[in-house]
Amino acid sequence: QLQLVESGGGLVQPGGSLRLSCAASGFILPAYAVGWFRQAPGKEREGVSCIRGSGSSNYADSVKGRFTISRDSATNTVYLQMNNLKPEDTAVYYCALDRDLSGRCVLGQFEYDHWGQGTQVTVSS
């Protein structure tokens, strides 16, 4: 059974850092792309970053240079390292799985068919 479980969210001051984890089970990470998304209150869910089975990645312009996505195949976990956090980064963060085998890595939510439960990130002083 495919399952994604996020962790690592919390409250952090502006300029601080957090590392989110997405623990995957029921499949082998390198086979598919995994994406991170976020949804702030009253806003649509938006793509933050994704990592292909090959290991290459994409980022939303709003997080480039601040966020880094990575993958540990030994533990079947995808990470999102978030540095220099801003209040506008406050949201529920989700990881999701794209089972397309073409090698794509997209930031559109409708390409992803399995989602975790989300973890809250709050950036506030």
Principal-axes geometry comes out as: globular
Strand content: over 45%
Number of helices: 0
Rounded to the nearest angstrom, the radius of gyration is 13 Å
Mean pLDDT: 94
How does the helix and strand content classify structurally? mainly beta
Describe the structure.
The protein is mainly beta and 125 residues long. It contains no helices and eleven strands. The protein has strands at 3-7, 10-12, 18-25, 33-39, 46-51, 57-59, 67-72, 77-82, 91-98, 114-115, 119-123. Strands 2, 4, 5, 6, 9, 10 and 11 form a seven-stranded mixed beta sheet that branches. The N and C termini lie far apart (40 Å).
Please write out the topology.
Blueprint: E1 3-7, E2 10-12, E3 18-25, E4 33-39, E5 46-51, E6 57-59, E7 67-72, E8 77-82, E9 91-98, E10 114-115, E11 119-123
Parallel strand pairs: 2-11
Antiparallel strand pairs: 1-3, 3-8, 4-5, 4-9, 5-6, 7-8, 9-10, 9-11
Give a brief outline of the structure:
This protein has strands at residues 3-7, 10-12, 18-25, 33-39, 46-51, 57-59, 67-72, 77-82, 91-98, 114-115, 119-123. With 125 residues, it is mainly beta.
